[in-house]
Amino acid sequence: MxxxxxxxCLILAALxxxxxxxxxxxxxxxxxxxxxxxxxxxxxxxxxxxxxxxVESRAPASTELSGRLTWNDDVTVRIFTPFAGRVxxxxxxxxxSVEKNSSLAEVESPDFGQAQADAxxxxxxxxxxxxxxxxxxxxxxxGAAAQKDVEAAEDAxxxxxxxxxxxxxxxxxxGANADSLDEVFILRxxxxxxxxxxxVSPGLEVRPDQMxxxxxxxxxxxxxxxxxxxxxxxxxxxxxxxxxLLPGREFTFTSRAFPDETFTGRVDKVSEFIDPNTRTxxxxxxxxxxxxxxxxxxxxxxxxxxxxxxxxxxxxxxxFLKGEKHFVFVQEKPGEFTRHEVAIGSEQAGRVLILSGxxxxxxxxxxxxxxxxxxxx
Length: 377
Prior knowledge:
The chain is α+β, with helices and mostly antiparallel strands. It is built from 5 helices and 24 strands. The chain has helices spanning 2-22, 110-141, 147-172, 216-219, 369-376; strands at residues 32-34, 37-39, 51-54, 56-58, 63-71, 77-79, 85-90, 97-98, 103-108, 184-188, 193-198, 205-206, 223-226, 230-237, 250-255, 258-270, 281-288, 299-304, 311-315, 320-322, 325-333, 336-348, 351-356, 363-367. Strands 1, 2, 3, 4, 19, 20, 21, 22, 23 and 24 form a 10-stranded antiparallel sheet that branches. Strands 5-14-17-16-15-18 form a 6-stranded antiparallel β-barrel. It has a 4-stranded antiparallel sheet with strand order 6-13-11-8, with no helix packed on it. β20 and β21 form a beta hairpin. α2 (110-141) packs antiparallel against α3 (147-172).
């Protein structure tokens, strides 16, 4: 009997101990989420995977953008021939200054000869129609011709005059006249300036439709006349840089040809759209090249002074995008993090300017933002 009571006591003690252990489970270490806040237990191993960095003050820094110098199209003309033919003589060379309507080359062209002949024939037809009208009017005055004959002569004279005007205007548009039938067309410069490029030589066959071809060696204009003292600069900017590239604003740039010199330009035009492939905005500026040291097609570095005021900055890895807004995770105290919306500025040297949403000295998460964002979602 005593042995039976002893075993009963052992069984009862074991049951009591088991109930006690079930009532005290081990801590799991899972974080708690409340709104924008995430809290981890002090002994959570997940905290070791998070890296932090302080919010630091940052002074505005200059920005470098790539640019390219080009001819100023307002003072540049690319010259093609309006008639097919063979180049007989070159009368202007690269670097030569030319006046408006100055001769650049002579082209032997049967097409131009036909235009000259048409103008000469139209002049002859007009003279014949005028004489016929005069004769019909005299005959009509003496009763030797009918009214309809006079009217027919007047109609013929009007048609001849219109054809003469058309033929003469055609060759006059190219600076020629019907005084000669030599079939030699003078290729002239429509603007005063300097011959900055030439892709023509004596004996070369040219035609007016070569500008429509797809081969660069064919589509090149015969001459380019421009004013090298006035250049354009094409800048590839980002949307963040646009506020500092408003029309009329000055900027500086450097060239590898003159590494110790700084040049000045002025913004003229800003594109109305962003290139969907490069995500850049085209900006055009003008450059004073009076000293003729800069050359078209040079690549340059455009320097924009810091446009923002002194502000705060965080590592670029701390900022992430959700929808159209930017956020960071801030450590409020050890193990407790809150998502903050921020307004950002430009990025320099791996750090992003923070315009609003943070305070200096706060700690932000730089590694583990994706994990924390997943917990909120």
